[in-house]
């Protein structure tokens, strides 16, 4: 597919995501989640030795991801415009910009009227940490962290791989990211089986995460964002979430990180960013970074295409 058609497919997918959001029924990723659950039930062995568990996890990852990525490749090569439509739909199903916005707004609105209970419940739908005991600042901080991180996972990462490999690239990235969210934990259950899912997602996300961090930096306090990225990101447990959140927090002039509880176990995480603690209206600013960044990426894609036509 030539660059012009690829750009049109990207614009079409972004507009579909903006207008329709994620399908409420028959979403391919829901079906993929069920498939991944069935594969895990078949391939994960309790109390396997570490190396054996890692090999089983890698085999399960390949079984879940490779056939569907090859199917996407075949569909995107169909003739008579069907390949273009398939490419557009592959990216549409891989994007989650509107879904991210809807989930974060469901936290913002109760926070703004002092309904902390509802805000905690809404937050619990989009984060893995314990939310029942969080105060308003803790809810806000957690929601802003997931906004910045998912800006990369649900928007910019998919766009990057679509630009590089078309529809199959977006599908590969999204499936890998989904498996990381399902299997990529350091708990006893997934420490070995999920090792491949976590490492492969890290590899696929390495460059998109840094481009996302650069995007956030350019859209706010650039000097502070880059400084936070350089000096704080390495202290974060995730090699990709660290740059994204440090840059985003620095760009907004806010402090993220700190204590969080996962499955009843408290974890002291490094602080990211600079400035003050976030409040509810800062979540709108976080969403603004993602929306503006998406506009920047699409604008740069359009400009690059026009420039290529002049050469």
Automatic annotation (TrEMBL):
GO terms for molecular function: ABC-type vitamin B12 transporter activity; threonine-phosphate decarboxylase activity. GO terms for biological process: cobalamin biosynthetic process. InterPro entries: Cobalamin_biosynth_CobD/CbiB. It is a multi-pass membrane protein. It is found in: Cell membrane. GO terms for cellular component: plasma membrane. Keywords: Cell membrane, Cobalamin biosynthesis, Membrane, Transmembrane, Transmembrane helix. The keyword Transcription does not apply. Pathway: Cofactor biosynthesis; adenosylcobalamin biosynthesis. The keyword Nuclease does not apply. The chain crosses the membrane at residues 55-75, 82-100, 154-176. Belongs to the CobD/CbiB family. PANTHER family: COBALAMIN BIOSYNTHESIS PROTEIN CBIB. Converts cobyric acid to cobinamide by the addition of aminopropanol on the F carboxylic group. This is Cobalamin biosynthesis protein CobD.
């Amino acid at each position: 597919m030539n660059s012009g058609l690829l750009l049109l497919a990207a614009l079409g997918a972004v507009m579909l995501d903006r207008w329709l959001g994620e399908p409420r029924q028959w979403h391919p990723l829901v079906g993929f989640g069920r498939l991944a659950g069935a594969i895990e039930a078949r391939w994960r062995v309790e109390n396997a030795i570490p190396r054996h568990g890692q090999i089983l996890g890698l085999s399960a990852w390949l079984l879940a991801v490779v056939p569907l990525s090859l199917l996407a490749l075949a569909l995107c090569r169909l003739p008579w415009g069907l390949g273009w439509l398939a490419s557009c739909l592959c990216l549409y199903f891989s994007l989650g910009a509107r879904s991210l916005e809807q989930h974060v707004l469901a936290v913002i609105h109760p926070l703004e009227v002092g309904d902390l209970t509802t805000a905690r419940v809404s937050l619990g739908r989009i984060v893995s940490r314990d939310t029942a005991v969080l105060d308003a600042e803790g809810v806000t901080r957690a929601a802003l962290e997931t906004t910045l991180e998912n800006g990369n996972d649900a928007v910019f990462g998919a766009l990057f791989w679509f630009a590089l490999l078309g529809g199959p690239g977006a599908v590969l990235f999204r499936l890998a990211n989904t498996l990381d969210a399902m299997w990529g934990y350091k708990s006893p259950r997934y420490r070995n089986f999920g090792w491949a899912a976590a490492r492969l997602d890290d590899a696929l996300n390495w460059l998109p995460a840094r481009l996302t961090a650069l995007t956030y930096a350019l859209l706010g306090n650039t000097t502070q964002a880059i400084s936070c990225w350089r000096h704080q990101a390495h202290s974060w447990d995730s090699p990709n979430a660290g740059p994204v959140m440090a840059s985003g927090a620095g760009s907004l002039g806010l402090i993220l990180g700190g204590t969080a509880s996962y499955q009843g176990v408290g974890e002291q995480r490094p602080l990211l960013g600079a400035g003050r603690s976030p409040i509810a209206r800062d979540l709108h600013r976080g969403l603004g970074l993602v929306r503006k960044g998406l506009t920047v990426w699409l604008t740069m894609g359009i400009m690059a295409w026009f420039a290529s036509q002049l050469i």
